[in-house]
Structure of 3-keto-5-aminohexanoate cleavage protein:
Amino acid sequence: QGKSKGGRKVIITCAVTGAIHTPSMSPHLPITAEEIADAAVGAAEAGAAIVHLHARNPEDGRPDQSPEAFAPFLPVIKQRTDAVVNLTTGGAPTMTIEQRVRPAATFKPEVASLNLGSMNFGLFGMLNRFKEFRHQWEKDYLSDKGIIFRNSFADIEYILTTCAGNDTRFEFECYDTAHLYNLKYFFDQGLVKAPLFIQTVFGLQGGIGAHPDDVLHMKRTADRLFGDDYRWSVLGAGRNQLPIAAMAAAMGGNVRVGLEDSLWAGPGKLAETNAVQVRAVRQIIEGLGLEVATPDEAREILSLKG
Ligand code: KMH
Ligand code: ZN
């Protein structure tokens, strides 16, 4: 992890909109290209070194993984910030693997996400709050039977081989310990290279929980499998966002926030911007005597192409 006289450098990633939250859940969820660009710029100005991006149909907010949907905001973000751009290959659970990889294959970003295993996505807690949806697609999409997020070994390899040669590095999304072992398999095959940027995800129904024991277990497993060959980051879903970030920052990790992961800025209080969450986590990091990494420091820590 990065070091300096002033204290260890902590990389903040901000995931500004994602594909699971829908427009009816928060009026603050960025939908249009302009909103996504403004959210990313605001997050970067508040201290996010990396912005993790999805795109949406501006008419109804539906996740849209066509390169044309990303094209209007990527140059704006590049022009207005120095932040590392991280494009999703997770897309949405309804999309095919070929659709999911297209933005990363087209724009060849410094970072793309890569999900390390198939899993259930149980959104029951969230759905209990939202009986009324503005759009029919939200109702169909967030089926009350739960969603399966497919990431087979073949799917993962497809994304790796499609992006090979682009110098894109990955944010490896690991939602449970098995996913760390899956990553280890690809590492041993030589298909992914150190330093691995591992995003351990806590508190999604279908993945590992958000108890401190869960955080310790994921870290210990990653330490055992990868030693010095990885950089650790955490993401806590919903109300777990800041507690998980605080735990990991104190334990040597990096952090991810953003409206993709939580719509909240406190109990019962919707986050009005992504920047609000970045500022909140920044306060925790600085309160611990640590420093927030700049985009260039993140590039160095993660060996990005820059
Ligand atoms: N929604 C997440 C918990 C992706 O875009 O590849 C993780 C994620 C997936 O960001
Ligand atoms: Zn995402």
In short: Residues 15, 18, 52, 54, 88, 90, 113, 260 surround zinc ion (ligand 2) (CB under 6 Å). The domain at 9-302 is CATH 3.20.20.70 (TIM Barrel).
